[in-house]
Design a protein that fits this description.
By secondary structure, the chain is mostly helical. Helices cover about 70% and strands about 0% of the residues. It contains nine helices and no strands. The longest helix is centred in the N-terminal third of the chain and has 26 residues. It is elongated. The chain starts with a helix and ends with a helix.
Length: about 190
Amino acid sequence: MSSAAVESGTRSRTRRAILGAAAEVLARDRGATLADIAKAAQVGRSTLHRYFPDRDMLVKAAVADAYLVIQQSILDAAVDEGPPLEAMRRLVAAMVGTGERLLFLYGDSTVLEGFEAGDEPDSVAQMVSDLIRRGQAEGVFDPDVAVQWIQDTLWALVYTGCDSASRGVLPRHGVPAAVIRTLENGIRGQS
């Protein structure tokens, strides 16, 4: 392996560590300093500044990173495969797995101001809507509840579960089961 490849691998890992730490720290404390973030990322402040010259650039990069991580986790859940209930359970587990990034991105409405995910429609949101519609068509999810309501409820429960774990109310490993149980009891179709 060439030294350039090692350097780019190291740079990539350092960048990911900084962005992950930024999401984690800023999810807990929106006023955290760059020094707080550098400490959490286990890098020096000068290293952090080489990657992100100022706080605004770091926050923008952390928003874009968190968005992509969440989107990828949903894609990885393969919600278009298998029975709807199993797909929904995989989706919940994948979303909960993004934890601090989800809390960072959705814990303060101003974080997303000015952020544009791209020009294309949100295909991931469409996949989730399609899963809900499929579940409703198969009688697994209540067809009398609006798809958007179920989707909004899903996001709210996942956010609440991640927040509960970060505050120590629930163990992190128990969040998916709590979210799934609450969600399923609320959207189950009539048998």
